[in-house]
């Protein structure tokens, strides 16, 4: 079934919020629901809509998958505590790394993440809590790209003909599926979320595993986490839709202390975009790129090459995986 898009420009934010709160409340009835909060604008907006609709009948979890950025779980839990929303951290690091072991194909990696999230982790949480519904922040761009076969976004099921009740044992509610990122930001602001959340840069569901080319291991994630922190620090003043660091699988010859060093490559991407459907590389000042490269080779062990991607989307996609 075609989803009726609601465009950010023409959206009556208050009416949208009221409709969604009513819909969630009517669908869930007197049952219990759960949701996973990653701290991104989509899952944050859904968390607030869900709490408005269900109050204590919504239980919110932060899934610590071992693939998040530096300090992320603690930061997000503390932001929501201030908003009066209790968030429980679920340690699932081992499950995710086990599922990703030995996988190099990008779509197989995405599938491993999806299965671990929805079958293993949520399946158990649903069983333990007695919840009947999972609320999640799928947006229209996620559906478009998955249905078009470009990328299997981690959170798209119904639109692929997957019956989540039959496969995972619970139903999924998607209050944001008619809008895109620009619309979600408006809703998030109207819901009283702080600017650090409603203007937060997008981050993909598969998290840092979308930024490791080849097999995902705890060591590679630690490297790309460090590279991500440096990239976010150095580019934070830039007006851009999203920026990221990617760890490549191939090594290249470099030199260190007068000796050959067959080392690692980091690729930086920084995008200008409105809604993630199309994107252009940001014209980052050269001095910023130079500083970024210098920090990367001195602070991330083993890196001998740093490149900046100058391709548009399409044919590139924003994430490398
Ligand atoms: P791509 O790489 O498809 O990214 O051009 C477009 C936007 O979507 C984000 N992205 C995801 N978001 N689940 C998500 O919730 C995913 O599986 C996923 N993959 C990519 C990406 O960060 C960018 O903002």
Give the helix level as a range of percent: 40-55%
What is the number of independent domains?
2
Side by side, the strands of the main sheet go 3-2-1-4-5
CATH class of the largest domain: Alpha Beta
Query: From N to C, what is the helix and strand string?
Result: HEHEHEHHEHHEHHHEEEEHE
Provide the list of bound ligands, each named once: xanthosine-5'-monophosphate
Beta content comes to: 15-25%
CATH architecture assignment of the largest domain: 3-Layer(aba) Sandwich
Mean pLDDT: 95
Major β-sheet profile = 5 strands, parallel
The chain-level structural class is alpha/beta
Report the span from N to C terminus.
Answer: 28 Å
- Taken from the alpha-carbon principal axes, the silhouette is globular
